[in-house]
Each structure stands twice: as C-alpha cells, then as structure tokens.
Amino acid sequence: MKTDIQIAQEANMLPIVDIARNLGIEDDELELYGKYKAKINDAFLKRTADRPGGKLILVTAINPTPAGEGKTTTSVGLGMALNRLGKKAVIALREPSLGPVFGVKGGAAGGGYAQVVPMDDINLHFTGDFHAITAANNLLSAVIDNHLQQGNELGIDQRRILFSRVTDTNDRALRNITVGLGSKVDGIPRQDHFMITVASEIMAILCLAESLADLKERLGNILVAYTYAGQPVYCRDLQVNGAMAALLKDAIKPNLVQTLENTPALIHGGPFANIAHGCNSVRATKLALKLGEYAVTEAGFGADLGAEKFLDIKCRKAGLVPDAVVLVATVRALKYNGGVAKPDLATENLEALKAGAVNLEAHIDNLRKFGLPVVVAINRFGTDTEAELDYVRRICREKGADFALSDVFAKGGEGGLELAEKVIAACEKPKDFHFMYEDSLSIREKIEAVATKIYGADGVKFDASAAKALAEIETLDPAYASLPICVAKTQYSLSDDATKLGRPTGFTLTVREVKLSAGAGFVVVLTGAIMTMPGLPKKPAAYSIDVDDDGNITGLF
Predict the structure, then answer these.
(1) Which whole number is the average pLDDT over 195-199?
(2) pTM summary value
(3) According to DSSP H, which parts of 310-442 are helical?
C-alpha cells in the first residue's frame, strides 16, 4: 500500500497559474512561489469585492483519537466530489504546524487519495507564513526586554509581562525559562516561557484580520504587560506594531494550491483548536466564497472546540453564516470513546461502539442548537467492519440525521459522491443560525453558556487566580465584556478531563486562567491541564522523516 507522500509525489499537478485562470484570477494578481504554489494579492480581492458569495460548508468532527479522524481528508474529498458533480467548489484549510508534523500526527494535508499538494511543501515551511508569525511575535518579545534594559520608561512590571515567545516545534524544555542571565549588558533577568506558534495571539490576529490596516491596528491592541502602577501596556505603546505588520505583509495573503484532482484549495493560517480558535483565515474563507459555488472549510478537533469557535468567534467577527455542517465520525473514534485503547481500535467491538455512540449523539445535538443542517460523514477506515458501519448508520437514523459513507481516502472524489449529494441537499434546507451566547452577556455568563450547553457541564468553577484576572479584564475597558470567549481545553473529551470519554455528565468545568487577547478580539479561557507548548512523544514522527540526495522527502505520513 502506498504512503500518503508516495501518492502525493505521483500526482499530476497543473501549473498553479492554470488553476488560478480557471478561477478568473489574472496572472498579475498572483505572486508565485515556484510552479505549484502562489499567493493571491489584494488586487484580486479589491476587484471582486462586490461579487456575490457561494454556499459555505463547515466540516467538523466528533471527539477524536490521538491520531485524528480525517477532517482534512474529508474536506478535500468533499471538495473534489462536488467538482465531479459539476459544481464549482473551492476548499479553504488551515496550514499545518511543524509541531504535530514532527510529533504525533505526522502530515496534515489530508490523506490517501484526498490530499492537497504539493504535500511535502505544505507540511514543511510552505510559503513561510508561520515563520513570519514567529518572527513578528519574537520581535515584540525582544522589544519588551530591550525596553526594560534601556531604562523602562513605561514602568513595566517585569513580573507582569503577559506576552511570551513562540516557536513552531514541540519543545517541552522551553515551557518555563529564565531570560536575561549573564552580565549587566545581557538584559534584565526574569521568568518567561515559550508557546507553540499556533497558540500565538498573532496567529489569531492574522486569521481574523480583514486587511493590512486592520492587521496593524490589531497588533497595536495586544495587551503585553502591566506597569508597577497596575496600568495596561499595549503593543502600540512600544511602537513596534508597524514593524510587526511589515514582517507579516506577505503572510496575510491567502495561499493557492490544488488537490490531487486539481480542485483549487486555499490554505492560510492555522491556530490550534484546543488552545486557540482553530480556523483558517477569514480572508481565505471569504475568498473561497467569492471563487466558487461552494466553499468547503474545516474547524479543528471536535465540534465542541473548532466548530463552536468557528461559529461563535469567526462567524460573529466576519459576518459569515454556514449553509450546512458536515460532522465527521469514525468507527474507531466511537470505539475510543467507548473505552477501547488506541492499539486495539482495529478490532471489531460492537459493545464499545454502542457505548461510544453517545459522543456522536452529543455533537449532533450541539450543532443543531446553532440552527444549522447537519450531515454526518462516516469516514471509512480499512479496519471497519460492515456490522460496525451499519451500527453507526442506525445511530444517525435514530437521531434523524442525514448521513453518508465517505471513502475518499481510498477513492478520492469518487468516494465522496454520496456525501456531496447529501451536502448539496442540506445547503438548500432552511436554517435558523444563531450564536450560543449574546454579546451582552458577561464573560462569566458566556463561559457558563458554552460549558453547560455544549460541554454538558453542571456549572463552572473559577480558580482564585482566574477570578482575579477576569475582574481585572472587566475593569480595563467596558468594551472587553462584550468580547466572545475562546476556551482552551482537551480535544479528547467534551469535558475538561481527557479521561472522561463519551458524553460525560455530572462534572464541573474548572477555569484555571483567563487571558485577554485584545488584538484578536476575544478572551482566552484556559481549563484543565491544557498545554500551550506541547512536548514530543517517546518516538516522534520526526524519526521517520528523511530526504534523499535528490531532495525527495520520505516518511512524511
């Protein structure tokens, strides 16, 4: 059986200028990164500003196994299937982070015969967007420490610096560090820490910014520290947001690539859904809507994380309204939620499947609470048995949910035709889209709304430090109380405890920290034992990745 990268390297790719011309994009509206990658510049965005948009399809999932459940694969396969049915579809996805690429999951550009290509480029560096975000983030960190060293005119309290450094690899040794060691000229010693780049507020800002001017203003609004007198210090006070925007002037432009079947795909931005808002950029999604009859986009991890944030943050901020939601479910994830260990997921186990089916039911119920049509995509794996697949179909029927078997991993667009037909029909159904909470609620009430309505918690408990931080945010500016919330929690459970699988009940969500992301325009709520800097496993995926003398990469999933 061929690996993903072998399939990708045998792909018959078209020059990206041909993909662009088929979309009505002129040559001078493209910025080429080689033969098969390009950025779309603002000239096209301005020219098509008044063009009506197509249908928006959101792809999400049930709570996953540690290896993921194939949302990207399903998104790519659905886009290709729509084109096979004569529809003009454009896919909008997140860029992969080097953290999971070299860590547990491996590549993140789809799988099998439902991939975006060039897969190795997309997974490794791509067009440099993440490096630009890392550089802009760490420029601000360097300026903060330089300000302390050069006399600290603003009176920044070094114990209350909120902004941290980032790197786009999993490195647990950098979670807690001390900077400024050495002689007097080496800086002011203080505690600091690193996050992974995809958790940076700058990543969130890039993905929510509508323009370069909006980006620069949002960067200036980043709350970086407090003074000794307890006053806030913003990025604009350090006069560095202009330089940061200069570093990001190309990164803000959406990237155009293609699938194995030459369906156009925009890949841009990539905040994690368990520690950030988990969606590709607003610019890419809106561009996909302008370019096609159908825009297929995804939100990270389960619907309790990515989809909730897509709907409550991204749609609220960008004025987007999905026409349908595809909920990806797998037999193995349902068995995992039924208590089966990861090594045993390939073995038929109907009892575990029945026990874990409550997780699928919970996500169907939750998505319906937003007033949107839902189609369950049963993403087929080679180890699934007919008895197991029949049981998942039965659950969908009992819930009154549309469903389709998706075999795009093995068959490409052909394996997604049934799903595409169901999604087209769902897009024509009436919808009553609404958010899970209103802007007028307090931050505490918004947290309680998501915890009780989406996670199924009995209530919310705030640690003392979280309660203090929340009160401080509310006193900074009355406008902050109207911001949406971005909950950071485990992706493996509806609760904040990764061991509580299925559809847990009788639990209280514990909020241990609250942070203001004023530039992004939301309040981050940290729960459970979530890490903003993951570590590598005992045998990371990096052990299997190599490159030969001709530059051909192997082992990338």
Answers:
(1) 95
(2) 0.95
(3) 315-318, 331-337, 350-368, 386-399, 408-411, 417-427
